[in-house]
Every structure is written in structure tokens, then in C-alpha cells.
Design brief:
- This protein is mainly alpha-helical.
- It has one domain.
- It has 6 helices and no strands.
- The chain has helices at residues 4-10, 12-25, 41-49, 56-79, 86-102, 106-109.
- Helix 1 (4-10) packs across helix 2 and helix 4 crosses helix 5 (86-102).
- 19% of the residues are buried.
Length: 113
């Protein structure tokens, strides 16, 4: 059964995206292997966005952006029968991050290379 937690944190495709994000931003805390075990999406989200010593607002903006792109990818796969390779989704995430920064997400800018 597909749940929000599965889609955002447990799906094999999603984990690949999170690993690529962690590498792109040099943020090991975003590696799925570093996450505190959880069974609910809200617990997972709080766990990765409330780590002491990390910029909470920046991480929350980033995770919301990624969750949005993952949701759109899921809908494209289910309703349009079109999926994107991880490289294409990563390009969308990077582009969206830059648009969010241009729109005023200053805290997010601190995470980007």
C-alpha cells in the first residue's frame, strides 16, 4: 500500500533522489541511511528538518520543495504513465530551488552550492 511515508522516504526511487540531493549539497544528514527510523511521514520530516546544528528553515524549505517534485513525479507516473529518470528529476529540483531563491527563499540559498 502506498502511503505518504513510503512515497517520501521509503520508495527506492525516492531514496535515490535523496542520496543525489545529499551529494549535490554535501549534506550527509540528508542521506537515507542517516535518518532516524520512522513509520509516519510527519515523524520522518521532523527528524530530518530538526537536527541540532542545521539551518531548520532552510532544510524545511528544501524538503517541501523535494516533496512537491516527488509528488508531481508520482502523479505523472500514475496518471500519465510517464516517468522521469533520476537525472531529470534532479534537474527539476535544482531549477525549482533556484526559482524559490529568486522568489525570496533566502534561507534555502544558504544550502545551495
Amino acid at each position: 500500500m502506498e502511503t505518504a511515508h513510503h512515497l517520501l522516504a521509503e520508495c527506492r526511487y525516492t531514496k535515490q533522489i535523496w542520496k543525489l540531493i545529499a551529494q549535490w549539497l554535501s549534506q550527509g544528514i540528508l542521506q537515507p541511511e542517516q535518518w532516524t527510523r520512522s513509520t509516519r511521514a510527519i515523524d520522518w520530516w521532523i527528524g530530518i528538518t530538526s537536527t541540532p546544528g542545521t539551518p531548520r528553515k532552510a532544510y524545511r524549505s528544501l524538503t517541501l520543495l523535494i516533496m512537491w517534485e516527488l509528488w508531481n513525479e508520482r502523479n505523472s507516473r500514475i496518471f500519465r504513465h510517464k516517468g522521469s529518470p533520476t537525472t531529470q528529476l534532479m534537474a527539476k529540483i535544482k531549477s525549482s530551488a533556484n526559482m524559490w531563491i529568486a522568489a525570496g527563499a533566502r534561507d534555502l540559498a544558504a544550502l545551495l552550492p
